[in-house]
Structure formats: C-alpha cells, structure tokens
Design a protein that fits this description.
The protein is an alpha+beta fold. It is built from twelve helices and twelve strands. Among the domains are: about 45 residues, Uridine Diphospho-n-acetylenolpyruvylglucosamine Reductase, domain 2 (2-Layer Sandwich), CATH 3.30.43; about 100 residues, CO dehydrogenase flavoprotein, C-terminal domain (Enolase-like, domain 1, 2-Layer Sandwich), CATH 3.30.390.50.
Length: about 325
C-alpha cells in the first residue's frame, strides 16, 4: 500500500469540497489499496457524516452509511433485501460495510485485481485477458469485447428488482437516479462503471413502497455455503391473487456486468398460474442474448434453474 493522507470531514459540504477518495467501511477500498489497484493520495473518512437512519414508514429509506448487518436485521426491510445482505459476506464484513459502499464495490475479476496483468477497467485499451483466459466466474450477459467482468453486489440485485433509487450529493447540488440506470454496460469504456460524477457522494437509498414485496426472496448459488461471491443469484417478488401471478419483479446477479433486471421473465409470469410449469416456462427466456465464454457456458442453464428455485421457494406453502 502506498502512503496517503487521511482526513475526516465533519459535514457533507466539507466532504464535497475536499479532493480525495471517500472511505466508509473500507471493505473494498482498503483491499484494493493493499493490492495497488487503487492508489489515492488523499482519503476522506466520511463515517462521521449524518448519513444514517432507516425509515420504513412509506417504502424504505436507508442512509448511505448504514451498515449492512443493521439493515438486514431491521424490521420492515423487504425480505429480498434482507436476505441479499445476509448472504453477501461474513458477519464481520457486514458489520463494517456500508450500503453506499456496497453499491459502489468493484468487480472481483482476478485480472482486475492483479496489477501485473492487462485490464481495460484499470488501464483502458490494454485488453481483457478474461475473454480467452480463466472466465468461469465471469458474465454471460451485458458483456462487450472490452470487458466480461461481473458486478459483485448482491443487494444491488434486490434493489434493482424493487425499482430502488439512490440520492446523490455533489458540487452542483443533489439528484436522484434509478439504481437500474446508475450502472453502465462496459461497451468500449469498461472503466466507467456507473453514473457517479467526480466528487459526488451517495447519501441515501430509497425503495418505493410495494406492499406485495413482503413476498420476496433472494437466492444465491455459490461454490461453497460460507462467504463466497455468486455464480448466479436471483431476486424475486410476486403479487399473487387467486392462485395466479398478478405482477412480478425479477433480477439476476453473478451472470452479468451489472445487476440484471429481467423484464421478459416478469412479463412471462404475469397472468400465469402458480405452478412449476409456469415458472420453468418464464425462466426459459432469462438467458436471451447471453454470450457464454469457454469456461462459463453452464451459467445459461444455471440462471434458469436459479430463477425457478427462487420462485418455488417463494410460493412453497403460501396462501395460494
């Protein structure tokens, strides 16, 4: 790790006026600094800023500095969000990591994290060795010739499924962005991962009220049961009336370059009876447009099975 200067601004305004890289839980930033993937000269500890609080009075509002463990345990948090948080990391990391930092975490691609290898995310134009290299963990959806790295966040998948927004503060004022629109496909510029402008800070996460999101879940498939990143995951919420699906929200993780909403699957579920056959038919369109690599073709079928598993888990024993 290279030397850096650490300061702790006392107000949001002071933080926005100070040059440097924001530090909250540090579970991603410090890790990448140790690897020299990131080498900021100035680091701003923002943990004293008034960006906390969880409000479930009308939908869900979460301060950006709230810790993952506290959000997961809070009554009234939608099950898909709580479950995604609990499956995200070890208890120790959940106690440290902030929700804002989690949404901005960088990919776990081994080539990105190894400064001895080329990587278009670190150094644009150097290439993407994962395309022809070790790519079992990489994306099959939303990829480009420049990057096939998966997005790492679990809770972002649940939040995208539930139409969450984030509030951002910057030198030019504040703005609100749908989380689904915040993330960017790699295209020719995989180093630009989101719509965060220079000096901006996530201040709050807002999930609109959705009464039937009480029937929601998050399923994560990984190589081991303990702390591990997803091979594939699915966030699902269902509105069920008279044994039929009135509405649905579905998003996937571990298979795409960003949290991947699946509107075609949602459309295929609407109006259908709550049966395994309906679920399998809807899930069959989940991998449309997938571009598997040499080591991850299994993710095409795994994505479909993960969605079916989530739907079955959500409806098993329900008041259908």
């Amino acid at each position: 790790m290279r030397p850096f200067e650490l300061t702790a601004p006392a107000t949001v305004e002071a933080a926005l006026e100070s040059p440097g890289t924001f530090l909250a839980g540090g579970t991603t930033l410090v890790d990448l600094m140790k690897l020299n993937v990131l080498t900021p000269h100035e680091v701003l500890d923002i943990n004293q800023l008034p960006l906390r609080g969880i409000d479930t009075a009308d939908g869900l509002r979460i301060g950006a500095l709230e810790r993952m463990s506290d959000i997961a345990a809070h009554p009234g948090v939608y099950p898909a969000i709580s479950r995604a948080l609990l499956l995200s990391a070890s208890q120790q990391l959940r106690n440290m990591a902030s929700i804002g930092g989690n949404l901005l975490q960088r990919t776990r691609c081994s080539y990105f994290r190894d400064v001895a290898t080329p990587c278009n995310k670190r150094h644009p134009g150097t290439g993407c060795p994962a395309i022809t290299g070790a790519n079992r963990m990489h994306a099959i959806l939303g990829t480009s010739d420049a990057c096939v790295a998966t997005h790492a966040s679990d809770v972002a998948v649940a939040l995208v499924a539930l139409d969450a927004e984030i509030r951002l503060a910057g030198a030019d004022g504040s703005r609100t962005v749908r989380l689904a629109d915040f993330y960017r496909l790699p295209g020719d510029t995989p180093d630009v991962e989101n719509d965060l402008r220079p000096g901006e800070l996530i201040t709050e996460v807002v999930v609109p009220r959705l009464d039937w999101a009480a029937r929601s879940t998050y399923v994560k498939v990984r190589d081991r049961q303990s702390y591990e990143f997803a091979l594939c995951s699915a966030a699902v919420a269902l509105d069920i009336q008279d044994s039929h699906i009135v509405d649905a929200r579905v998003a996937a993780g571990g298979v795409a370059t960003m949290p991947w909403r699946l509107p075609a699957v949602e459309a295929a579920l609407r109006g259908e009876p709550v049966t395994a056959e309906s679920f399998e038919k809807a899930a069959s369109v989940a991998a449309h447009g997938a571009k598997p690599l040499s080591g991850n073709e299994f993710k095409v079928s795994l994505l479909k099975r993960t969605i079916v598993r989530a739907l079955l888990e959500l409806t098993d024993g329900s008041d259908r």
